Amino acid sequence: MDFMAEMAELALASRLRRLSDTYWQAVTATYRQSGVDFDVRWATIFVLIARQGPVAITEIAGRLGITHPAVIQVTNELEKRNLIVSTKSEQDGRKRFLSLSEAGQDMLPKLQPLWDAFITVNQQMIAQQTHNLLLSLQEMEAQLAERNFFDRVQDQLTTKKSE
Length: 163
Fold this sequence. Notes:
single chain, 3 strands, about 5% strand, globular
């Protein structure tokens, strides 16, 4: 048996990371096989910009639940690849609005069939599961949004000390 699976709850984060790595490797291979020069790390931000239209970095961070520096790192890469363009806000010069460039718009029809295939395969695998992974992830994320993991662990350690 897989040792990480044997460790059960202790290895939850490691198993999620391993699952994520498995997906990222497959998606990267699919992009390469299809001749699309696109990095898996860009996908969620690229899709949000494509769907949302001009969007600010702070809004991207908030909508995706990721850090502002992480958004800046990815958007800088997208700008270097000429897939997005940045315009400054007329009301606040510190604020940038991002939208797809012409090259980004041209890439969408190449990416969409791949994304459609990713969705279909995920739907097929989820349909074969006893427990829907997406719903389980949503429940876990909601619990952690209510009270983060660190605080929960600290409470557990304090309770154990007082026993």
